[in-house]
Design brief:
The complex is a heterodimer. By secondary structure, chain A is α/β, with parallel strands linked by helices. Chain A is about 35% helix and about 15% strand. Chain A has a domain at about 20-140 and about 230-250: Thiolase/Chalcone synthase (Peroxisomal Thiolase, Chain A, domain 1, 3-Layer(aba) Sandwich). Chain A has a 9-stranded mixed beta sheet with strand order 3-2-4-7-1-8-11-10-9, with helices on both faces. A two-stranded antiparallel sheet of chain A has the order 5-6. Chain B has one helix spanning about 35-45; strands at about 10-15, 20, 50, 75-80, 85-95, 105-115, 120-125, 135-140, 150-155. In chain B, strand 1 (about 10-15) and strand 2 (about 20) form a beta hairpin. Chain B is extended, with a radius of gyration of 22 Å. The chains are: A alpha/beta, B mainly beta. Chains A and B meet through helix 6, helix 7 and strand 5 of A and strand 5, strand 6 and strand 7 of B.
Chain lengths: ~450, ~160
């Protein structure tokens, strides 16, 4: 059993406030041979600096930067070691210091965490976080082997070389314990593919019915293709700054009130149980009947301890009492439909065992109590792994600034990516959004970060 | 001095934008280090796990996958024979495996729950239809070992 001591559960704090001033993206594609990685990163950075209504021109921005953080998941996908040095040079940031961060699927979240630590400590005052992934140099089948290299190569990867299957093992156990109807899972896939229809950046938009998802081929039971994330090429940028720099650069900086990380074993096999770590909106009473009173049979294979740990720290750091009440929007790491339901429970949107109600109740939809993955998420829009956590936060930033339409509704932006804005386009701007949250997630829950941003 | 290219040309996959084929054909020499004992055990039809030798350590159960050092106290662990019967904790059938998979799809993956073992080893069901709770026993691929985790599999146990 895992034992946590008070020192292990110390709530992180920033020595000074951290702000997000701008975000930039590329569009996301399965194949993107037209632009190399350096070009994609430049495109996302230019968008961040030139299209976010900054009060400083690009030259003054460059004079303000004093540290850079890079985010790429897999060197073997890009086939270029020290790719960060190449991108850093291409962006013209030499000889400033930089660091490249790697924590699997949560790399983007961890990179923003590293940048926030630099700003919060006073080490830096203006930090671009640049993330990307280039997953199109190899076939999908080889790509899946590469991704499965992020399972344990000694005891697990050989069993299928397929990450979806490692998630499917957890999914099957979750279903055994909780029996979520396939229709509920299909609704998550339909929702995120649909929201991707309103994003010019999206790779997998689609207006699917529940029946389409139910009849879709299985990758590894119970997961179908339409319930799995995209494999993408693209980049994303977020710019972090201290208070003085943030207000010098923009009238609408958004404060990063918390960003915290948690982990659990890379091999799902090695997960031992412990008593449930309670969030601020839960009590002992919440789980009186859970698992017939055996509250310490957690997290098993049905829950992500890493996500619960990160949420525990972040909620206490930002003063969150009830996530559904306190957040106005949420971006989850919807790598697979069932893992999304598992995450709803881990971050306290519903008690353990009741995650499906977050979808069934309508809470997760636009104009619901906590709209989730209005970006289209990983299922609908992108999973260019190193860019993903940064992409999520750029989308949350624009929602909190009231700029969702600016970055999604302009026909010229659709044309930039060779697309036509759909005739039935609708705005997904959340009215008066004040506080948003994003979950970045790796492995079968090996690393998770929870970020909370708040309008100033 | 004249420099000659050795004649190997990169195949052009696409002209616009220019895309070339980069070949990657070398091997890695991967050592299992201290875990090699587990894989050699499979060749002999033995399922070896480890147990912490520190009397002060709270975790008395076996680790499988084995570890040479205990994650709870970093003390050396001892090798012991693990139970060769267990139950299916969860399962999935791989229909579209990645490129390096050495077996044929569909392949039923399982997580194995064993009495006295604190972990739930990932493996595969060689015969039968998987279901949660199904009693199973270990079988070993000793004829032509792959010297990987695939040399261990499970079958239903009456």
């Amino acid at each position: 059993m895992i034992r946590l001591a008070p020192g292990n559960l110390r709530i992180p704090r920033f020595e000074r406030p951290v702000y997000v001033v701008a975000g930039g993206l590329t569009d996301y594609r399965k194949q993107y041979p037209e632009k190399n990685t350096c070009q994609l990163c430049t495109e996302a950075l230019r968008m961040a600096v030139e299209e976010n209504d900054l009060k400083v021109d690009p030259e003054e921005f460059r004079r303000s930067v004093n540290w850079c953080v890079y985010s790429q998941f897999a060197d073997h996908f890009g086939d270029q070691l020290l790719a960060a040095a190449k991108v850093h040079d291409y962006l013209g940031f030499d000889p400033l210091g930089n660091i490249e961060v790697k924590t699997g699927g949560a790399t983007g979240g961890s990179a923003v965490l590293a940048a926030a630590q630099a700003v919060a400590s006073g080490y830096a005052s203006c930090v671009p976080v640049v993330g990307w992934e280039r997953m199109d140099e190899v076939s999908t089948k080889v790509g899946n082997s590469y991704i499965a290299s992020a399972a344990c190569k000694d005891f697990e990867s050989e069993l299928g070389w397929m990450y979806a299957s490692y998630y499917a093992l957890m999914a099957q156990r979750y279903q055994y314990e909780n029996r979520v109807p396939r229709e509920t899972l299909a609704r998550i896939a339909c929702k995120n593919h649909l929201y991707a229809c309103y994003s010019p950046y999206s790779q997998n938009p689609g207006r699917y019915t529940i029946d389409d998802v139910l009849k879709n081929d299985l990758v590894s039971d119970p997961l179908s293709f339409l319930e799995c994330c995209a494999m993408s090429v693209g980049a994303a940028v977020l710019i972090l700054a201290d208070e003085e720099t943030a207000f010098r650069m923009t009238d609408q900086p958004v404060r990063l009130t918390a960003i915290c990380g948690g982990t659990h074993t890379l091999r799902t096999a090695d997960r031992r149980n412990m008593p449930i770590l309670l969030l601020p909106n839960e009590t002992e009473e919440t789980y009186r009947d859970y698992f017939h009173g055996r509250r310490d049979e957690w997290p098993g294979f049905s829950s992500f301890l890493a996500a619960r740990m990160a949420a525990y720290l972040a909620y206490h750091m930002a003063g969150i009492r009830d996530p559904v009440e306190d957040f106005d929007l949420l971006e989850t790491h919807d790598a697979f439909t069932i893992s999304d339901i598992q995450t709803y429970e881990d971050i306290g949107l519903r008690p353990y065992g009741q995650g499906r109600d977050f979808i069934d109740s309508g809470d997760a939809y636009f104009e619901g109590r906590l709209p989730t993955n209005l970006s289209g998420g990983l299922i609908g829009t992108m999973h260019a792994v190193g860019a993903t956590g940064i992409f999520q936060l750029a989308e949350v930033l624009w929602q909190l600034q009231g700029k969702w339409d600016k970055f999604h509704a302009d026909p010229a932006r659709w044309a930039r990516y060779g697309k036509r804005k759909p005739d039935d386009f609708r705005s997904l701007q959340v009215k008066n959004a004040r506080r948003g949250c994003a979950i970045s997630h790796a492995g079968t829950g090996s690393h998770v970060t929870v970020s909370i941003m708040e309008r100033t | 001095m004249a420099v000659e290219l050795n004649g190997t040309i990169a195949e052009v996959l696409r002209e616009e934008p220019l895309v070339i084929k980069n070949l990657k054909t070398w091997h890695h020499s991967h050592s299992y280090g201290g875990w090699g004992r587990f894989f050699k055990g499979l060749r002999e039809g033995r399922l070896l796990a480890t147990r912490c030798t520190n009397p002060r350590c709270a975790e008395k159960r076996l680790w499988l996958p084995p570890r040479c050092e205990c994650p709870d106290c970093w003390h050396p662990m001892e090798w012991v024979d693990a139970p060769t019967v267990g139950r299916i904790y969860t399962h999935t059938t791989v229909l579209y495996p990645g490129a390096l998979f050495r077996a044929a799809a569909p392949c039923p993956l399982i997580s194995v729950e064993m009495d006295g073992v604190c972990t739930k080893l990932m493996s595969y069901l060689k015969e039968g239809t998987p279901r949660i709770g199904l009693p199973i026993r270990a079988v070993f691929n000793r004829e032509r070992p792959t010297n990987t985790i695939l040399d261990l599999a499970w079958v239903p146990h009456a």
